[in-house]
Design brief:
The complex is a heterodimer of chains A (401) and B (337).
Chain A (H helix, E strand, L loop, with lengths): L6 H6 L9 H33 L31 H34 L4 H15 L3 H13 L5 H4 L5 E2 L1 E4 L2 E4 L1 E4 L4 H28 L5 H19 L4 E4 L1 E3 L4 E2 L2 E3 L1 H28 L2 H9 L4 H31 L11 H13 L2 H30 L5
Antiparallel strand pairs in A: 1-6, 2-3, 3-8, 4-5, 6-7
Chain B lengths: L1 H16 L7 H8 L2 E5 L8 E2 L5 E2 L1 H14 L5 E5 L5 H6 L5 E2 L7 H6 L2 E2 L4 E3 L1 E6 L13 E6 L3 H12 L4 E6 L2 H9 L5 E5 H8 L8 E3 L7 E3 L2 E2 L4 H20 L6 H4 L5 H7 L5 H4 L6 H8 L3 H8 L29
Parallel strand pairs in B: 1-4, 1-5, 9-10, 9-11
Antiparallel strand pairs in B: 2-3, 6-14, 7-13, 8-11, 8-12
Helix pairs in contact in B: 3-9, 3-13, 9-13
Classes of the chains: A mainly alpha (401), B alpha/beta (337).
Chain lengths: 401, 337
């Protein structure tokens, strides 16, 4: 940028002076920019440290081992009680955030694909419904949608006391305390069902490889999808029956106020998931549509000319080429969904931002440490997501021969 | 050009990152011309904006009293609505000068976040339940779902209470008080817990206030009071004696109505209070008439109480323990001499 105007003069001279040599000058500029940047970072850190000292704010991560003393509504996969440490609170928040982000991304992708393809449908009604869906949900602020779904989920549902008598054993119930169902507890022998499940997956993978090789050699096709489906569902089911059904369902019991025991999916989770999926899917739908439209119509015509069935035409010819256009912006949507999950704090879903960067921060006052840890988590999650998507992108990119 | 811009911008950023030294809050406040006061996001009776954005309440009156003490103008104050979660960060970071936001005085907060200057409302945590639940005591709440605010002592007290009594509970914690009320109203939880004054205030927001009952148990001590940043004793004294002035004025019978007459009173105690004798105001960097100005524009503690939370307001709170020590309560201000 800086050496544009003087480059002609410099190249004309047989030996330029130090200040007139564009290469050397460029180096000086870069060294100076790096120095200023380093000084800037140092100034921020130094300022923060000095100010914290002046205000008597303690620093350090010692607070992580003190006990939290407050309850959390939902703590899947993590043992938590009021005596647990703030670090356990961190883990609870982290797990809740990851669960929300993962399930949200998968469902948003599926819904987005369906709506995106529907928008290109030749059926007028389907096309209009998809367009309406996209225009409605991507133009309403997400926070509003979260609050809407929360009251939409909560308001019409009855309370547990209106549904069940005290002492009643309940195997399945939907009420305004959430979706509650009996907890499946594996008995001795149940591990074999898992073994059968994983064995079926491996066998399916082998069949897929074998079928591909056979098709290359002979041109004959094999119904891999159907066989795999039967194997993966059938093998564990047969094992389950053969082992004498080694699974007990322990029902929830109605106490005076609410159902105790069983597995509870809290309404906050459902509301947040609905809002994130519906909102993000509207963007993904547009990305999918753009990706499909980016594939030249000649490809579709060529596929038809070769006699490929319409369903195969989409799956084998158009979508693989569209993926090259779809994947990079799709990554951004996944990242958005993950970060937007921090809006959970509005409706009491205990994600990382709510219980750690919120409650823990307020009870301990360790703002700098907690914010740094929270930032590190979101950064790591985002980098992992984009790392995976970049790997996938490089795998599906057009192979030119 | 780009390069020079970069330097200029980073230098400007670095320069603004510094701030005034901690001992000069009064000077800084005088310079900007108003007191920046942290209040709640809407708690009727304590700090609540009306439809024109005018704040009223017991906590708001304290802010206005500080403005009257410093500027002789109770309107020289700006309010920052804060959630329970961010209130202390706002204070320690210097965003506000004083936090007057129904905040419980505890030892860890006093040491970690700031200096409490006194108590302007003695409260205790209680439970509210729908009448249809048929509960008459908090000891019957085993297994209940409890709605509360995150980042409050309430959240910790309720955990302690249920653990101490070996009862199960589910906590549903929201950041904003309005969200807690909405969730409780929608039946998300069986119980709403917060300070009893807060229950009285939030109850007015429910769709059918009379269908709910406050249980008799008080499970904690909640002395609510204003606080200032650590490290500026002068500003802390101004806040402390603003509060004491309002309480002492009630004790001596000085009100906003008779303040002008009382200035010429022969009673030496009242003379010191009104600043016509001694130089008490000067000792904390204010005019001698700082207390007279507070009473003339905001009124004494009793007036503020009756106006905001007393029996004639929607909150209908009796003075109870918040009466003066001489009238059966525990309100007792150090003498101004």
């Amino acid at each position: 940028m800086a050496n544009n105007n003087s480059s002609s003069a410099a190249s004309a001279a047989p030996k330029a002076s130090f200040w007139r040599d564009p290469d050397k000058r460029a180096i000086i500029y870069q060294v100076a920019v790096v120095a200023v940047l380093a000084w800037f970072v140092y100034a921020i850190i130094n300022n923060t440290a000095t100010n914290m000292e002046q205000r008597g704010l303690a620093s350090g991560f010692g607070f992580l081992s003190t006990s939290a003393g407050f309850g959390i509504i939902s703590t899947p996969f993590v043992e938590y009680s009021e005596e647990s440490s703030y670090f356990t609170v961190f883990l609870v928040g982290l797990v809740n955030t990851i669960i929300m982000a993962f399930i949200g991304c998968v469902l948003a992708l599926i819904l987005g694909f369906i709506v995106g393809i529907a928008r290109l449908s030749s059926n007028w009604l389907v096309k209009k419904i998809a367009t309406f869906y996209i225009e409605l949900f991507r133009n309403v602020p997400l926070l509003l949608q979260i609050l809407f779904w929360y009251s939409a989920v909560l308001k019409p549902l009855p309370g547990p006391r209106e549904l069940h008598e005290a002492g009643e054993k309940v195997f399945f119930s939907i009420n305004n305390r959430g979706l509650i169902f009996a907890e499946p507890v594996g008995q001795p022998g149940f591990e074999n069902v898992w073994y059968a499940f994983f064995a079926a997956i491996i066998v399916t993978w082998v069949i897929k490889k074998w079928a591909a090789i056979r098709q290359m050699k002979t041109g004959q096709q094999f119904p891999v999808f159907l066989t795999g489906l039967v194997l993966i569902i059938g093998a564990p089911l047969v094992t389950y029956l053969v082992m004498g059904r080694p699974l007990n369902f322990e029902p929830a019991e109605m106490s005076r106020f609410s159902l105790r025991g069983g597995v509870t999916v809290i309404p906050e989770f459902v509301a947040l998931l609905l809002a994130l999926v519906v909102y993000t899917a509207s963007f993904i739908a547009e990305i999918v549509r753009a990706g499909i439209q980016a594939v030249s119509h000649g490809q579709t015509e060529a596929a038809s000319a070769l006699g490929i069935k319409p369903t195969h035409r989409m799956r084998l010819v158009v979508v693989p080429q569209a993926m090259r256009v779809i994947v990079p912006p799709l990554t951004s949507q996944f990242l958005n969904l993950t970060k937007n999950s921090s809006l959970a704090t509005a409706i009491a879903y205990p994600d990382l931002f709510s219980v750690f960067a919120g409650t823990t921060l307020n009870q301990t006052g360790q703002a700098v440490e907690i914010m740094a840890m929270t930032l590190a988590v979101y950064l790591t999650l985002s980098l992992l997501t984009s790392g995976f998507m970049n790997w996938y992108n490089s795998r599906i990119k057009l192979v030119e021969r | 050009m780009q390069f020079i811009k970069t330097i200029a911008v980073s230098a400007a950023l670095a320069a603004t990152a510094g701030f005034a030294h901690a001992d000069e809050t009064l000077d800084a406040v005088k310079e900007k011309g108003f007191v920046q006061c942290g209040v709640s996001q809407g708690l009727p009776g304590f700090s609540n904006p009306d439809d024109q954005g005018n704040w009223t309440g017991l906590d708001v009156d304290f802010c206005r009293a500080m403005a009257a003490a410093v500027f002789n103008d109770a309107d020289a104050v700006k309010f920052t609505p804060l959630s329970a979660k961010v209130r202390f960060t706002a204070l320690t970071s210097g965003e506000i000068d004083v936090l007057s936001r129904n905040t419980t005085w505890t030892m860890s907060r006093d040491s970690d976040f700031g200096e409490f200057v006194g108590v302007n409302y003695y409260d205790g945590q209680g439970f509210m339940v729908p009448k249809s639940l048929g509960v008459s005591s908090a000891m019957e709440l085993d297994g209940a779902a409890v709605c509360t605010n995150t980042g409050t002592t309430t959240e910790l007290n309720v955990a302690d209470f249920f653990r101490a009594n070996k009862m199960n509970y589910t906590v549903v914690a929201f950041e904003k008080a309005d969200e807690v009320v909405a969730a409780y109203d929608a039946g998300r939880c069986d119980v709403y817990t917060t300070d009893r004054s807060g229950l009285a205030a939030q109850r007015t927001k429910l769709s059918a206030p009379d269908d709910h009952v406050v249980l008799p148990e008080i499970i904690s001590k909640e002395p609510l009071g204003p606080l200032v940043r650590h490290g500026d004793n002068q500003w802390g004294d101004i806040a402390r004696w603003t509060l004491n002035c309002m309480i002492n004025a009630e004790e001596m019978g000085v009100t906003s109505a008779n303040a002008a007459d009382m200035a010429s009173s022969a009673n030496p105690g009242i003379k010191r209070l009104m600043g016509t004798e001694g130089d008490l105001g000067g000792k904390i960097g204010l005019g001698n008439d700082f207390c007279a100005n507070i009473i003339a524009s905001v009124g004494n503690y009793g007036e503020s109480y009756d106006r905001n939370v007393g029996p004639d307001t929607p909150l209908k709170l009796d003075r109870g323990v918040n009466a003066l020590w001489s009238q059966g309560g525990i309100l007792y201000a150090a003498p101004q001499r």
